[in-house]
Amino acid sequence: MREITHGDIRVAARVLLARPEVDWPALMARMLTKAHHADRYRKALGRYHPRLGNGTLMGAAFGMGVAPEPLPSDSRYLAAIGAVIEAVLDWRARG
């Protein structure tokens, strides 16, 4: 997976916002896996994956239904950002 940016975190959080919190861990696992596979494809073939994007978390997230961006002070949005960061840290610790 390519380097994680602030934009990646915000878009992934908006994907989570569109779903119940109980689904967040599985959604994050799917987004991270998609980004990882897309980046491996990009590195191997020198082009973006046709369905999974460019290897960024944002690229994987945009294909999963993104909620409108809420105010930065929205409690659920902040929780979603926290869930994204936690999932990324767990992903990196395992890999």
Q: Tell me the span between the first and last alpha carbons.
A: 11 Å
Task: Give Rg in angstroms.
Answer: 13 Å
Number of strands: 0
Encode the helix/strand succession as letters: HHHH
Into how many domains do the coordinates divide? Answer: 1
Bin the strand percentage: under 5%
Shape: globular
Overall pLDDT metric: 93
Largest sheet: none
- Helix/strand structural class: mainly alpha
Helical content (DSSP H or I, runs of 4+): 55-70%
Which stretches are poorly predicted, pLDDT < 50 over at least 5 residues? Answer: none
Describe the structure.
The protein has 95 residues and is an all-alpha fold. The protein has one domain (6-94). The protein contains four helices and no strands. α1 (6-17) crosses α4 and α2 (24-45) packs across α4. The chain is globular and about 40 Å long. It starts with 5 loop residues before the first helix and ends with a helix.
Tell me briefly what this model is:
This protein is mainly alpha-helical and 95 residues long. The chain has helices at 6-17, 24-45, 57-62, 75-94.
Descriptors for this entry?
95 residues, mainly alpha, globular
Q: Which helices and strands appear, and what pairs or packs with what?
A:
Elements: H1 6-17, H2 24-45, H3 57-62, H4 75-94
